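User: My collaborator and I are trying to settle a disagreement about how two of our proteins should look. Neither of us wants to argue from intuition anymore, so we agreed to look at predicted structures for both before our next call. Could you fold the first one, then the second, and keep them clearly separated?

Assistant: That sounds like a sensible way to settle it. I'll keep them separate. The first protein:
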Amino acid sequence: MLKKEEFSELQTDMVQNILILGANGYIGGTVCRRFAETKDFNVLALIRPGSQAKEIEPFCKKIICSEKSQFSSEEIQKIIRQQNIKTIINLAWDLPAASTVEAQFAKDRLALEAALTAASISSDIHVITTSGNFSLMTTSGGRITETPPPCGFVLPSYLSWVELLVKVNLLKDGLTEKYISKGGNASIIYPGSVYGASPTRKGFWDFAIQQFIIGQAYLGFKPFPQDFMTGWIHLEDLAECYIAATRRHQKGSHYLATGENLSISQMANLFAETAGVKFDVPLFSNTDRVFFDDSHTRKLLQLEWKHQAVKQIKTWIDRIKDLGNYFLD
């Protein structure tokens, strides 16, 4: 029979150590908290010099500040060996955004390549990388699943306004796919348009909603197409996807997390009705018949999404009023 101290050591060994890059970001903070709350994982966060880590500190076994402005494979390998890391989750995005795809990719590829190179020391180390649901869309539209688009595909014209984000993600996906093809243990998660309990001040989707309510694009941003369809996922549900993918630990997997299909104009209309703002609803016909279907991912990971955007809107409106945001003045 195991002694009490031996049983305690066995329990500790059963807790998996994971390393998160980009842990103090919008998505990363929630992912850290949810992993910690499972009690099955110890979270280690690698952050850049000068990054704020106070909010994630309660959820991390250890916060490691990189010695350089960019993560290196050498320092990640050191962490892997010293902390017995089994999973690396890359949520790092280099901001502020550059003006060209090439410049942004040159920055964003560094964290990803560092993680993949470091993990190559053992086939047991699983790297989970992050892309986006737009990266799965082609000119043919239709039902979008977690299947990566074919080589040589063409993006739909209405994604031109977000070309930088999509193309950088596609280039990063290419690095991950190449790593997998050579026997590397990695997976890709494609989140939809991510939302939380309250909107961020002047956040990405605020721009879209404002455009449809006041009829103007925000500060020179390209207008969102009226027929723009996207899928939506709550931060808490997305965190569950990362946890389930970590537990599954399956090399070469692709996961789509985008449970609700709502166009930007449909979301804007919901916002306007809730806020009591009157405006002409733009015509929406979904001419490309885009529909995001993540049923296969949910089946694989045994997940059901718990949140709906429509149930969050009243809270968002109250929060926007508190913040004094633009379109509800």
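The second protein, kept apart from the first:
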Amino acid sequence: MSESLLVTGGAGFIGVNFVYYWLNKYPNDKVVVLDALTYAGNLSSLDGVQSNPNFTFVQGNILDQALVESILKEQGITKLVHFAAESHVDRSISGPDAFIETNVLGTHSLLKAAKNVWLTGDGLEHRFHHVSTDEVYGTLEPSDPPFSETTSYAPNSPYSASKAASDHLVRSYLHTYGLQVSTSNCSNNYGPYHFPEKLIPLVITNILREKPLPVYGDGQQIRDWLYVDDHARGIDLVLQRGLVGESYNIGGINEWANIDIVKLVCQIMTKKFADNLKLHEQFPEARSVIAGNPEALIEFVTDRPGHDRRYAIDPAKANAELGYQPLETFDSGIEKTIDWYLSQENWWKALLKV
């Protein structure tokens, strides 16, 4: 039986990749994307599915409850996959209000819409799946075990606090109203269509424009990196096999210090430019990588306030209950990611307005 999905934030990084994943794997399903097209949402990222008769794009805000209710009704939505969020920690420090509005009030608006439409007895199976983050758990010491689903919440930034609040709201709508919900908490994603302010695409695009590679503090903050398609597959498994009301941690089992990530990207870029002289012509500004020394662009900058030291996810529950394992190795995933940015110059330059 075919499904009808509403994907909020489907013009953003993870949402876009999820849309491509889903329509490729389930070509008979209908996918409706709702996105406000703020700075992080890019309609051109969805060019590859615009001609698909099973794809619909709606520009709108998740705070518009009436709009969401109309989509749920008119499109016969059976699953809502909620990606829409303000997600950049630096922005949450300088302007937290937008994070409370989108991540807390926006999620609540969606929950109210789903409750009003779905709990009226249409006889269909529904699922509200909420996509969250490992940052709700706070920070880990070097010797601490990775986060599990039973780790206590201890958010340390306005961003992670807003996501923690939304997680609790989702849970409450199951226990109070009976809305069929699930949640997944993921580690740091990387891959195609990643907005260039985030670490990996920032390093790639700054090297290509001969700009500094800023590294916070000593660069020893550790993150667990997850290729975005593995995240999409994990969400798929939650939707197909996950129990209502449960949370599942989706991680890459792939911990790296930030400075080591920056140096790795520099090394891979150096090899690619050495092996392919056409890149010299395509990116003449990239003088340091053409010369074989992009690490000279690294600049250590003042650490962000309250910067969490380490994140890591234990996906044992998702493995045992859903059969989840990340398929992409970091070697293959980072190669794919760099190749994508090298071939999609027009996409990221349009975002950077260069």
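Some points you might bring to the call about the second protein. The domain at 4-190+226-252+309-327 is CATH 3.40.50.720 (Rossmann fold). The chain has a mean pLDDT of 95.
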